[in-house]
Amino acid sequence: MTGGGDRGSSDPAAAAEAELLRGFETLAVARPDPSAGVYEVRLNRPAQRNALSPAAFAEIPRAMSLLDRLPSARAVVLSAAGPHFCAGIELGGPGNPLTAAYSKGSDPVAAAEGLRRVILEMQEALTAIERCRKPVIAAVHGACVGGGVDVVAACDIRCCSRDATFVLKEVDMAIVADLGGLQRLPRIVGYGNAADLALTGRKITAMEAKEMGLVSRVFDSKKELDAGVAKIAKEIAEKSAWAVMGTKAVLLRSRDVTVEQGLEHVATWNAAMLRSNDLKEAIRAFLEKRKPVFSKL
C-alpha cells in the first residue's frame, strides 16, 4: 500500500480516508450517500470489460484494507462499470504476471516456483474481499466470467440483474481454476452444481444462478439492481457494526469447521461481545419502541 505522506498520522481513519481520495487506476471507490455508511467499490475498466489486470490484483486488496479500517464504512457494494461485470483475468496484457513468471529464466523449477508465488498473490488479492470485516455485497450485471466468478464467490451476499450470466471458462482454456472458485463454490452452490459449472464451462443465466444459490436475489434491470443492493447495504449499515462484523467472522469460521467447533467459537466470541454497549442500546430501544442509535467504531 502506498501513502507515505500519512505514515505519521495519529488518526488511522483520516489516513485511510486520505488514501481513498488518491484514487485508483482500475477501481472507482465512492460513498454515494454521505449520510449512509455504505461505500461502493466499482470495477472501472469498462473498455476492457473489467478484465482483472495486474493493477486490479494490486488495488482490490488495497481498497478492501482501507475500507476495513474506515469507521464510516459499515457495508461495501462491489459493482462494475460498463455493460459487463468482469471478463475474467486479462490475458496477454502488458506486465501480465503469469506470462512473466512462466518465461523467467531457463530453469523450469525456478519458473514453476515463480509462477506459484504469482498465483498465491492473486489468490490473496481476492481473499482480501472475504477478509474485509465489513460485509461485501456483489451487484452483478452482464457477463461474469472466470475470475469474475471468483471475485463474486469471495463476497458475502450476491445479487444480480436479470441479464447477468455466469461462466467458469478455465477448463476451456486448458487450465484449472485457481483463484478460489473451486474452493468457495461447492460451499455456496453444493459440490454437484460446482462440478457441473467447472467441468463443462457452460454459461448459466441469472435465474439458474438463483436456483442453485449462487445469487440470493435477481432484479429486473441494472437500475433496479443498483437501487436494491443500495437498500440492502444501507439496512445492514444501520445495524450494530460490532454485531455485523461478528456475524460475518463467525459465519466464515463456521463454514470451515465442524458444527461443534463453530458453536465453541461463537460461544467464545459472544463471551466478550454480549457486554457491548450496542446490546444495551438495542434492548432499551426495543422497550422504548424506537430506533436504536448504535455506537461508532
TrEMBL record:
Keyword Lipid metabolism: yes
Keyword annotations from UniProtKB, A to Z: Acetylation, Fatty acid metabolism, Isomerase, Lipid metabolism, Peroxisome
Main location, first listed in the record: other
A cellular component annotation (GO) from this entry: peroxisome
Pfam families: ECH_1
GO molecular function: isomerase activity
UniProt family annotation: Belongs to the enoyl-CoA hydratase/isomerase family.
Protein name, as recorded: Uncharacterized protein
Record organism: Urochloa decumbens
